[in-house]
Design goal:
By secondary structure, the chain is of the alpha/beta class. 22% of the residues lie in helices and 37% in strands. β4 and β5 form a beta hairpin. The structure holds inosinic acid and magnesium ion (MG). Magnesium ion binds next to loops.
Length: 176
């Protein structure tokens, strides 16, 4: 499979991804039952993950989105910008961040700082994909869907220079 100037090969099927998401949704519904958490999806990458998660999440909640930017091409720049913020008040809320993938953790670090000092009741991260060998930050990630090698992947919401987000399966960079 080719996207722009790179070749990718199938790594995970939609069915494999979605069974991991169903498990996460079950766990989250259990952990947050009796509260009304505010889920904050991180755009653009989380759109497939969020949509699938709420097919299975079966307790009261609210859903909002933020938009950050750090990646350009195949490598993380380390510079993260906030492009869109939540409009809801987060004070006193149980906030759960929905990330497509945690790689170096730069974006996550930025989110933690962004939501600090806002009198949030609780703050947790849920990420669909996680690259354990790339993550060197202290911050503990509460919910992880699927561990990946430290290689570049596309599909299921994740992009290569904005291409490939629409793909149903996950593809990995060839010869990486
Ligand atoms: P981090 O800041 O290095 O943890 O990277 C987080 C963000 O970079 C994610 O929200 C993704 O948008 C993007 N990203 C990280 N790894 C990949 C990848 O393998 N493919 C596509 N995007 C990625
Ligand atoms: Mg991206």
């Amino acid at each position: 499979m080719r996207l722009l100037d790179q070749d990718f090969e199938l790594f995970l099927t939609q069915a494999e991804i979605e069974s991991a998401i169903a498990l996460m949704a079950g766990q989250l519904s259990e952990d947050y039952r009796g509260t009304c958490p505010l889920f904050v999806g991180v755009l653009n990458g989380c759109f497939r993950f969020a949509a699938e998660l709420f097919k299975h999440y079966d307790a009261p909640c609210e859903v909002s989105f933020v938009k950050m930017a750090s990646y350009q091409g195949l490598t993380s720049t380390g510079i993260v910008e906030t492009l869109l913020d939540v409009s809801e008040s987060v004070e006193g809320r149980d906030v759960v961040i929905l990330e497509d993938i945690v790689d170096s953790g730069h974006t996550l670090q930025h989110l933690v700082t962004h939501f600090a000092d806002k009198n949030i009741r609780s703050f947790k991260i849920a990420t669909l994909f996680y690259k354990p060998a790339s993550y060197h930050k202290e911050y503990e990630i509460a919910y992880k869907g699927i561990d990946l090698p430290s290689e570049f992947v596309v599909g299921y919401g994740l992009d290569y220079n904005e291409r490939g987000r629409e793909l149903n399966d996950l593809y990995i960079l060839k010869n990486s």
